[in-house]
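In the current project phase, the collection of sequences with tokenised folds has grown. A representative record is quoted in full directly below:
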Amino acid sequence: MHRFGEPLVVEEAPEPSLGPGEVLVEVAYAGVNPLDLWVSRGTVAGGSQPLPFIPGAEGVGRAEGRWVVVRGAGVGVTRAGTYAERVAVPPEAVFDLPEGADPVQAAALPIVGATAWALAHRVAGVTAEDRALVLGASGGVGSLLLQVLRSAGVRAWGQTGSPDKAAFVREQGAERVVVTEAAGLAEAAAELRPTVVFDPLGDGFTAAAIKVLEPYGRLVLFGVSAGASHELDLRQLYRKAVSLLTYSGTIEPVERVREATEAVLAELAAGRLRVPVQEVLPLEAAPEAHRRIEERRVCGKLVLDVRATGGGA
């Protein structure tokens, strides 16, 4: 990444230098996330990354003779990331790959999986008595959130704006899929009478979520991909005693990141979670992967095969 807002390029880069206690990881696979796109636009960490910069906030590779998962400690956000053959990372960003876990799945899991786990268990505190509506349910977090909720015994519906994605959402564990934009959400989900709504969309979806929630319900806002601002009727919010809860993975303390990441890696190894990986692409396709995310052409996750490249990175 040479300039914010411009497409990524694949080229030779200097070998990473190890700081005190750091670990050198030979990267095999890197998960692709909206976070990487935001970093490339300069909207994360105030665009303070030194240019040129290597993105990639999660991945799987080999370090010191063992398979490891990489996530956290600023990797791909404030320091060089996993879109590279080798990366130097702090020890707190390294997790052992559980025995039996698929490396591609594990490369795609840490951010979306840990986010879904934190949203369900720490932020919303769901129980089997809840009825949940997951907005943007075809996305990386939404698709894992449906699985996490199902494991917790929660009745969950999923929302998508595309009829073509409805079958995919149902496959992730949604009891019912509502295909609607913000204007039709309250009517489409009224039968569920949700006690909790998970909202990565913002814009008019947040207002519609407040409208459809049951009294004393929880609205969990963790993104604004549909729009960062919208006028809300605050009377609906307070008259229904709705709790507005929020989550931002970019400011999560290290100990919370480790707790959530270890939890979902264990679920993956046990076969209770599976990341819907839409495609594994060569490293040269990183710009195309970012375009697909921007154009909402992804169901689940994309993964880069860092080894599948004709040149160094």
In short: The first strand starts at residue 23 and ends at 32. The mean pLDDT is 95. The radius of gyration is 19 Å.
